[in-house]
Amino acid sequence: MSASHPASSNGSEPVGAAFILKKAFLSALVALGLFSLMIGVRTEAGQSGQLEYWTRFGDLASLVAAVFVGSIIVELLRLWLGPRGGLGSFVPPSVQSGLSIAGRYLAPALLIFTFLVPVIFYNQRYILDLGILVLTYVMLGWGLNVVVGLAGLLDLGYVAFYAVGAYSYGLLSTTFGLSFWICLPLAGILAAFWGVLLGFPVLRLRGDYLAIVTLAFGEIIRLVLINWQDVTGGPNGVSGIPRPTLFGIPLTPGEGGLAAMLGIPFSPTHRIVFLFYLILALALLTNWVTIRLRRLPIGRAWEALREDEVACRALGINITTTKLTAFATGAMFGGFAGAFFATRQGFISPESFTFQESALVLAIVVLGGMGSQLGVALAALAMIGGFELFRSLEVYRMLVFGLAMVLIMIWRPRGIVGHRAPTVFLEKSKSISSDLVKEGHG
Amino acid sequence: MSSAPILALENLTMRFGGIVAVNALSFTAQRKQITALIGPNGAGKTTVFNCITGFYKPTSGIIRLTHDDGAQYEMQKLRDFNISKQAKVARTFQNIRLFPGMTALENLMVAQHNALMRASGFTVLGLLGVPSWRAAEQSAIDAAVFWLKRVGLIDRADDAAGNLAYGDQRRLEIARAMCTGPALLCLDEPAAGLNARESAALSELLLSIRSDHGTSILLIEHDMSVVMEISDRVVVMDYGVKIAEGTPREIRDDPKVIAAYLGTDEEEAAAVMEAEA
Amino acid sequence: MDYFAQQLINGLVLGSIYGLIAIGYTMVYGIVGMINFAHGDVFMIGGFIALISFLVLVSIGLTAVPVILLIVLLVAMAITALYGWTIERIAYRPLRHSFRLAPMLSAIGMSFVLTNFSQVSQGARVKPVPPIVTGGYTLHEGESGFVVQLSNIQIVVVITTIVLLGLFTWLVSRTRLGRDMRACEQDQTMAALLGVDVDRTISMTFVIGAALAAVAGMMYLLYYGLVDFFMGFVAGIKAFTAAVLGGIGSLPGAMLGGLAIGLIETFWSAYFSVEYKDVAAFSILIVVLIFMPTGLLGRPEVEKV
């Protein structure tokens, strides 16, 4: 914790046992200060509403001891990895370039595997549900990637468009009885419309200001969903949202159901498998459109915008419309994902659309390596999969998630896939190191 | 072809708060000529450029551009991106502004954005991959290849612009500006940081842009050998006002110009003297 | 009119709390150019530490309220400042020269860590405390029977805010540390070349910001009589709004912005709707950023080409 100590910043200085112990001792001391009251004393409102407290000095002592030992381990690791052995050197360049070669085969392999998941794990409902969840976040990640990764616009309120999509389908279907396949494009269009509505005033803001405004926008949408009870059902949300049909054929037991029509015994798994392929198709559509767009002038303009806005203006590119199209495109995919979410859950409430969701999707995009489609998919798998692994930890889950976000940023600030693939080439497509790629000002 | 000058500035004034960076400046740049704007550091040259190319809105005055077909544009009224899109004025920057994470070829493709947007049916036709879009894309690549060859960077087409050497980046930026199909090309110190050989190549390139492509050029330059060699006309600024205008030969002998340089920057005054000798 | 006067008082008190948090945002943004997303949670931690130290002090038999308040204030400031220092050290310093998004995500992660740390360590339920500072003055009794009151706690909040604000204004304008801070704000490389310890200066910025947030946390606890683990998020966004409204980087601006946000929120709740008070605050944030991104007292940013 006290690496600012002169000795550690100078690699040639001898790093002895005494130094390591001293650092560990200082770290433990800081930990003692931090945790003294927060861990050492536990407060809770008692029976009469009066606040009571009891001490937990044992927990405090073990936590401080853990910091002491942890600090020693970190220092030893640092010693072992060499003088420049920051966390960043865990992945040497040779491995990184190897990764990019493997990446060429990884994407098709991953795709084939994904297609086969419902076949392999047909009887494992849990895996299928998890797969659907991961794919939903892959789709959200790919959608946000258009805004953040390509256009370089920092959007912290992406969940708002997810919410717009979900509520569009939820309300249109329960109020007007419209089917999923009519509502899906409507949800996308409505979300895109909201994207433009938000985008128009805020797009001349830059960097952190844009981030905070989009965050505020996301919160406003959520608060309106909570408080506008007549329409949205308030905190209770919308329930009884119809399940999707295979172009009109319901996936239900009984007469008109798909199982009956095919003459096979009904199983609830059919619907899960159907949902799996539905979200897979939606995600792949997002991916396909994004890849196409990158090779079109609009996509190149997005990336150019991320690289240098001033130069774009000098080349006659209308910054406002270019940013708006990026915002609208990203929002539209968010809307599709939202409609899917609503039909899968059958129930939506404002609770599902908190800032944490936005942060999670943004973390997926950044961890994936901004602009990289494969990276985003891998990051979604790692994040959501990891999140599931820690499900047993319950309340500690978000704590671990937050810590993971910090550590991942320190470890790989540019994400898993650290290079950019050119959109057009003459002789040979050479991937561009992310050190050169800008991340935008907007 | 219109007989009016390609660019005419009338009483251009630019104030920043209380500071007058450009004061009632008037000059013209003739069609298919190279006009140089020179002056000591801080004379207001780049401010003039930024007004012409729409990055600043001038406090007062008119900047009039006349195309070959007689179409006129008042630049101070156009929105920034329309200066390139409609008025066909391209520029480069004093401190190179390429898209460093994109390849040289991609940089030149971005420069053809507006034409390609139309060809891609504002993305719709492009998304469907219709043949007319493919043809337009191919011709855009051809145009990019032409300019890459012209500036000697064809071997680096697939390399990231940020990886190119300094001189290469300068030339790529000029190629990118030319890919917008400009009527007027504004170059902000294109020779800065170049060695003698590169400067000579630059002079040759600019002369050919003028004669082979019919593009008028306005340039700010400190390298007097370049200015004296290629300019058809020179405008000298100091403290935001024009102090002299004429052919390179006239400027060279103008005592006011020599005084302006001697009074502010000995090195550049020496450069003027040297060019004279 | 009486109702209005009462809301004015309430708004100013709330605004003082926002202003104290806003200073932390503004200082950090000024010096490292990042939004310290975890700052709202530092405020929450400050509230918790004030609560716990208060409980402990009362249970060991201390009865003199001013003494208790002073000790609680000092303990909360000290420990919360340590949180500020640690956060900078762990989550931000390794990323100082990294890509712009990395520190922002790291900050969001840190915010989650703090929120859930206090949830895990202190439980999810709201922690109420009995009123600590009681009593007050009746300023005016209207004909309709409406009474304009100024409670002692409101006086404590406002006076504490004024004193600390004065102290820290002196600190950043008159001391060596303040000079170093302003130097780092202008140009870190140059400051380092001139012998300013940039690391230490940035650490101190976080420490001071956290200490002031702790004061805000304690005032919140005294004023509202409760804390909970989730209170940092919304308070943080509002305080950030205040910092932007006042002009980011400006200390008096942050205070001014805080008062403005406090007043707007109070009046909105009083005259329009309580449910939409946060929507009002967020909308103001958006409107301010769009129409006057430099805020009330900020310096305009000139685009260099």
Automatic annotation (TrEMBL), chain B:
Record-linked Pfam families: ABC_tran, BCA_ABC_TP_C
Keyword Transport: yes
Tagged with keyword ATP-binding: yes
One annotated GO molecular function: ATP binding
InterPro entries: AAA+_ATPase (IPR003593), ABC_AA/LPS_Transport (IPR051120), ABC_transporter-like_ATP-bd (IPR003439), ABC_transporter-like_CS (IPR017871), BCA_ABC_TP_C (IPR032823), P-loop_NTPase (IPR027417)
Domain ABC transporter: 7-264
Entry keyword set: Amino-acid transport, ATP-binding, Nucleotide-binding, Transport
Function: Involved in beta-(1-->2)glucan export. Transmembrane domains (TMD) form a pore in the inner membrane and the ATP-binding domain (NBD) is responsible for energy generation.
PANTHER family: CONSERVED COMPONENT OF ABC TRANSPORTER FOR NATURAL AMINO ACIDS-RELATED, HIGH-AFFINITY BRANCHED-CHAIN AMINO ACID TRANSPORT ATP-BINDING PROTEIN LIVG
Family: Belongs to the ABC transporter superfamily.
Protein name: ATP-binding cassette domain-containing protein
UniProtKB/TrEMBL annotation, chain C:
Keyword Membrane applies: yes
Domain of life: Bacteria
Keywords (A to Z) from UniProt: Amino-acid transport, Cell inner membrane, Cell membrane, Membrane, Transmembrane, Transmembrane helix, Transport
Principal location class: membrane
UniProt-listed CDD domains: TM_PBP1_LivH_like
Record's subcellular location: Cell membrane
Membrane-spanning intervals of the chain: 12-35, 42-62, 68-87, 99-118, 153-172, 202-223, 280-298
Its membrane topology: Multi-pass membrane protein
Family: Belongs to the binding-protein-dependent transport system permease family. LivHM subfamily.
UniProt-recorded name of the protein: Branched-chain amino acid ABC transporter permease LivH
